[in-house]
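Hey, can you fold this one?
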Amino acid sequence: MKVITVEGTDKRHKILLYTLSTCAHCKATKQFFRENDVEFEYLDVDLCDQQNLQEIKNDILKRKSNFAFPKIIIDDQIFITGFDKDKITKALKI
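Sure. Predicted structure:
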């Protein structure tokens, strides 16, 4: 899978975003992390091949979530669906 890392000075958390390349909420989520200088990784699900897409679907299903985007995974324990600044801010303590 082609995971893209966006560098940031705040490296306290391991953050992975499942996004869609054309999704406005996904773009806003990425921008939020950039503006707060938080390091994160993301994967544009709609640009993945079938094998990687199946792996992502399995990951989302095992977390008992739906297929709405963005998906924000923080420290492999906190799972947020959608761009919710309050939830993200609280989870990251920023």
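The chain has a mean pLDDT of 94. Let me know if you want another pass with a different chain boundary.
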